[in-house]
Amino acid sequence: MPQIKSSKKRLKQDEVRRVRNKTKKSEMRTYVRKLNEAVTAGNRSEAEALLSTVCKKIDKAARANCIHANTAARKKSLAARRVAAMA
């Protein structure tokens, strides 16, 4: 446990940020999973509708520094390719 006051504060801040980041990442993963399930099921209309939501969630996670910008770009590209391959 930290002894210094600023270290104690930092510990509390880190915990709050960890929970916040975990929530954003989890929400992003949930929508990516839904998109993958729609693609696997062959439901093109649902997949196209989910694609914009997935991109939005990925961008929000990247903007909040939950994931790296390049990781976000890669995930969005992969999602778009999967939906495009359904045609």
For the structure shown, list the relevant keywords.
87 residues; mainly alpha; Methane Monooxygenase Hydroxylase, Chain G, domain 1; 3 helices; 84% helix; 0% strand; elongated
Brief write-up:
Helices cover 84% and strands 0% of the residues. The protein has helices spanning 5-41, 44-63, 69-84. Helix 1 runs antiparallel to helix 2 (44-63) and helix 2 packs antiparallel against helix 3 (69-84).
Describe this structure in words.
- The chain is mainly alpha-helical and about 90 residues long.
- It has a single domain (about 15-85), classed as Ribosomal protein S20 (Methane Monooxygenase Hydroxylase, Chain G, domain 1).
- About 85% of the residues lie in helices and about 0% in strands.
- It has three helices and no strands.
- It has helices spanning about 5-40, 45-65, 70-85.
- Helix 1 runs antiparallel to helix 2 and helix 2 (about 45-65) runs antiparallel to helix 3.
- The longest helix is centred in the N-terminal third of the chain and has 37 residues, at about 5-40.
- The protein is elongated.
- It starts with a helix and ends with a helix.
